[in-house]
Structure to design on (117 residues):
């Protein structure tokens, strides 16, 4: 029963997000303003004009954020799995421990990762 409810939730969430994107496209201004395309960093105007909107040095942080978002979804799904089969608690705990140690490793080596890009 919970798989059916989860599937319905995913479909409804997709349809609602698609509806909001389409409404945004229909109701938005067609003309692009100069202030919309300017780069804005930490509450200050940038020192120089940049054509790149997303600086590459922030890319590893984006990857870490995406990984944590996926981990959060996996934790939520694993909680449903634990409630259905309580003997799976050890496997899920080992899985989450591996994810925790890997995230600590990434956070320690993040500066080297940024310099490598």
């Amino acid at each position: 029963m919970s798989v059916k409810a989860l599937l319905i939730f995913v479909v409804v969430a997709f349809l609602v997000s698609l509806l909001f994107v389409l409404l945004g496209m229909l109701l938005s201004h067609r003309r692009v303003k100069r202030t919309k395309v300017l780069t804005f960093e930490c509450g200050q105007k940038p020192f120089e004009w940049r054509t790149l909107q997303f600086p590459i040095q922030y890319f590893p942080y984006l990857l870490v954020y995406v990984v944590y978002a996926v981990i959060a979804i996996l934790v939520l799904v694993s909680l449903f799995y634990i409630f259905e089969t309580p003997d799976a608690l050890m496997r899920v705990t080992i899985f989450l421990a591996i994810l925790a140690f890997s995230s600590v490793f990434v956070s320690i080596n993040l500066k080297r990762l940024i310099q490598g890009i």
The longest helix spans residues 2-27. DSSP finds five helices and no strands in the chain. The mean pLDDT is 76. The two ends are 46 Å apart (CA to CA).
